[in-house]
Queue: 2 jobs
Job 1
Amino acid sequence: MLEFRKIELSDMERAVRALRYSDKMMSEFSFANNYAWESMLNLKICFYHDFYIVGFFGGEDPEFLFPSGPGDLSGVVAQLRAYADSCGAPLRLLSCEEKMLPLMEKMYGGSFTVDALDDVSDYIYSTKDETELRGHKGRQWRRFCREFEGRFVFRPIESEEDCKKCVSFTEELFKRNASPDESAVHEQIAVKKYFENFRLFGMEGIILEADGVMMGYTAGTPLNSETFDVNLEKTDRTCSRDLSIVLEYKIAEKMLDRFKYLNCEEDLGIPGLRYAKTIEHPCLILKKYDLTFR
């Protein structure tokens, strides 16, 4: 029987090996993301042979990410079905790629149902397109440059001190929120975990300062062979309404020679965030399919 437990940093090498084999573009298939958001998602992991399995235990029944790694897929699915059955629940596999659906249908016929939820689709942008500043992006960039001419600087996040500054900046934004909810508290925990392990996770990022004061930052991790995952973007919108566009341009510029795509993750079903992500013209809205076995 599979045994799920708390995720640890010592799991990283084995987990990353499985994730690299599967080479998925979805933001869930990231050890850094799994580790950072473990408390909010009540996330636990286990390994089965060379497979890395992520489970979520916050709901009435456990749910599992589609397994990552090489080997016998039918074997690991059988183990997960047995585990779910021991919990008195149907097996629910989350974030199956569209290209995997025909294989799953061939293997299991009509023994599962498929659901696709728009709220969890990832927004994928072409790194090249993001650096070309077309349309409103170019206007916002020029407006920012006029407003802060000679006063702003971009610099890479490199030192431990830079990481501490980013955490402090996030905490200050958090304090300004008059009524932070539980998810905001968990986000604070996640941000600290990212920056405490910045080098270990292979993270890269950019700080934006004007007149020596931080206005925002963005940071992320390599997700697969072609995609950089933008895990974090924080801006002080009281300084300028153009900061997100400016940081997106700079991180795309930094990644242009190494990654074809930027994954800017989900809109969480928030209408304003969905609108903002959509008008940026993603080259792909990456759908994720959930499979529930009967």
Job 2
Amino acid sequence: MCESTHGCHFFNNRISLLYRMSKQLPQSVLIVEDRPDIARRLQTVVESTSGITLAGMASTLSQGIEAFYHLKPRLVLVDIGLPDGSGVDLIKAVASAEWEVDALVISIFGDESRVIEAIQAGAKGYVLKGQEMDKVGEDIMSVLEGGSPISPSIARHLLAVLKEANVPSMPKESVLTQRETEILKAVSRGYKRREIADQLGISAGTVGNHITNIYRKLEVSSNMEAVAHASRLGVL
């Protein structure tokens, strides 16, 4: 307990300063990718993106899990198809970690079963390898800011699959507003928060507030889950 009012103010101000400084420090990224050429490209992207730093690299599931617990990164960039297992097992480890950390999938696999499995395991984003790799730095920052980047082709495929499901309609008290639905549709097409904000003529913060409301109404914790759930309910 503080011995004086002045001491309390000093202590609280110091804690506030340390918190702000922690938010400004580069966020560490662990890359788990078995192909050396792609791993090098991802390394270059991470090292050239302001606000993040490379924590380490691994080429197998076992190496990735060991590095994950040893390095305690802020984000794990993980491939699904690894030589000794599925990257989904690492995603599950990320989801149950005791520190703040997210998983972003980057893979050549865009089929229904792998995408849904990754989402259910706790992945915050799913992007395909290829030309989109040049934007991986933006995708990482999007996840760190609370977004869930999805490759447009993945989003379209996911929507098409989920629309075929026979599910009950959404309860009236959970129906999204017109603006929320508009934003979620943009998310489902792969647009990021800043892009949605520009399209709608509102701030990125306002988009974030709408997304928070969407999460609450749909009882989800990521854009990917929101798109999947809303699609099953017939909202999209």
